[in-house]
């Protein structure tokens, strides 16, 4: 066991599972994996898991990629290239790489780790933290590592506290008074309460801590089992709950908050509605997710761009933004922006109105456009006088309109519309 004064994070690595297609985000993941989707004005979703690891003191990381990984790999090369091997710091990107004969894709989340055992061995670590690369939250993993060591667990599983009536959408844990997991139930119709509060359930966050030597043996055994799907949630975790010591770690114990009474913030932005809402929530007077916190920054690739600029000051042609976030490089030229989030290098022209719009980088909005309750994909050119968000039937002819009335606009959709109207 390490000396008590040595942070456990210095003996650990983070293995980030970032191969997810994220198909519920529809066209937003046509050309990029879900962890590479933009979030919060200048970040990408994967930056949250990586920043949590870095801020927790972990300096060895690996990212397993699979589906449409190019933009994710490029982002990590540009934004996360400050690790120095001579200081025992590593960030390795691990595409499914035909390391095994025949099947070259990762077959499941556990197989993604199994295929890279030799690389993980070379890190010379004691503990491995398995992370999902597609959630928005701030968490100090050192606390979870500490609990794992103190409890003598085979696996420690990060858990959210969710109301019982909402827990059917998750894999949930039934725990005893000591926090040991008695059973693991995948999306149960009647989720169990917790020993201290029967109205809430512990739901898996897809975050696991293992001793590496122990996990290594389990993975090799699993890889030789023809009946296994080689997945943590389906195979490894249920097996350890049944035959080993699995312990729940509550997110509320390690959530990083800027004030003690702030809520424990965690979001899966896996649908267009959830993605839109989590971004728009950042424009609130006091957002639940604090991106201004210097103590726990969200690191990312920052392009070198000039500050945002607002021009024109006439009655119906004024560059303004109210209750909005506007990123660097934006030019708001005679446009009214309300309750919106604009990513880097958005150009918006005169007499246009943006209301509750999430506008991804390098979008151009031409004159007299009115855009409300929408998500605009990167690089889109909005034509003059386009109106979105006022007539759902008209919007649905050309664009994807979600169940909650949020319109997703991509360049392909606009091109098809233009072809049809010309």
UniProtKB/TrEMBL annotation:
Keywords: ATP-binding, Carbohydrate metabolism, Glycogen biosynthesis, Glycogen metabolism, Nucleotide-binding, Nucleotidyltransferase, Transferase. GO terms for biological process: glycogen biosynthetic process. Alpha-D-glucose 1-phosphate binds at residues 106, 171, 186-187, 204. Pathway: Glycan biosynthesis; glycogen biosynthesis. It comes from Tropicimonas sediminicola. GO terms for molecular function: ATP binding; glucose-1-phosphate adenylyltransferase activity. This is Glucose-1-phosphate adenylyltransferase. PROSITE patterns: ADP_GLC_PYROPHOSPH_1 (PS00808), ADP_GLC_PYROPHOSPH_2 (PS00809), ADP_GLC_PYROPHOSPH_3 (PS00810). Belongs to the bacterial/plant glucose-1-phosphate adenylyltransferase family. Involved in the biosynthesis of ADP-glucose, a building block required for the elongation reactions to produce glycogen. Catalyzes the reaction between ATP and alpha-D-glucose 1-phosphate (G1P) to produce pyrophosphate and ADP-Glc. It holds the Pfam family NTP_transferase.
């Amino acid at each position: 066991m390490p000396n008590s004064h040595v942070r456990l994070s210095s003996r650990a690595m983070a293995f980030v599972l970032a191969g997810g297609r994220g198909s519920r985000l529809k066209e937003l993941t046509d050309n990029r994996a879900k962890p590479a989707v933009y979030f919060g004005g200048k970040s990408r979703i994967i930056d949250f898991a990586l920043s949590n690891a870095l801020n927790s003191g972990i300096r060895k990381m690996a990212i397993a990629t699979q589906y449409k990984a190019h933009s994710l790999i490029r982002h990590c090369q540009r934004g996360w290239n400050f690790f120095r091997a001579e200081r025992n710091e590593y960030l390795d990107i691990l595409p499914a790489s035909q390391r095994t004969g025949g099947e070259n894709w990762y077959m499941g989340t556990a197989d993604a780790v199994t295929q890279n055992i030799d690389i993980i061995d070379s890190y010379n670590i004691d503990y491995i933290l398995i992370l999902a690369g597609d959630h928005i939250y701030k968490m100090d993993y050192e606390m979870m590592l500490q609990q794992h060591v103190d409890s003598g667990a085979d696996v420690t599983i990060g858990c959210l506290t969710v109301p019982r009536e909402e827990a059917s959408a998750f894999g949930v844990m039934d725990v005893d008074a000591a926090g040991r997991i008695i059973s693991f139930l995948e999306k149960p119709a009647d989720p169990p309460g917790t020993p201290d509060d029967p109205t809430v359930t512990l739901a898996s966050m897809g975050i696991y801590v293992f001793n590496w030597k122990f996990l290594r043996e389990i993975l090799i055994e699993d890889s030789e089992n023809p009946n296994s799907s080689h997945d943590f949630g389906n195979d490894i975790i249920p097996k350890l709950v049944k035959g080993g010591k699995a312990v729940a770690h509550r997110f509320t114990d390690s959530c990083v908050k800027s004030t003690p009474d702030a809520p424990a913030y965690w979001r899966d932005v896996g649908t267009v509605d959830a993605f839109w809402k989590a971004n728009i929530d950042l424009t609130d007077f006091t957002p639940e997710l604090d991106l201004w916190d210097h103590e726990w920054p969200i690191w990312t690739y920052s392009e070198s761009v000039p500050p945002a600029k607002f021009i024109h000051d006439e009655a119906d042609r004024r560059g303004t933004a109210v209750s909005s976030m506007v990123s660097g490089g934006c030019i708001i030229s005679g446009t009214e922006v309300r309750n919106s989030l604009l990513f880097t290098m958005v150009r918006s022209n005169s007499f246009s109105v943006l209301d509750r719009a999430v506008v991804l980088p390098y979008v151009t909005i031409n004159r007299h456009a009115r855009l409300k309750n929408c998500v605009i994909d990167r690089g889109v050119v909005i034509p003059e006088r386009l109106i979105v968000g006022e007539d759902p039937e008209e919007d649905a002819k050309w664009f994807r309109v979600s169940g909650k009335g949020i319109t997703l606009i991509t360049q392909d959709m606009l091109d098809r519309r233009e072809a049809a109207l010309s």
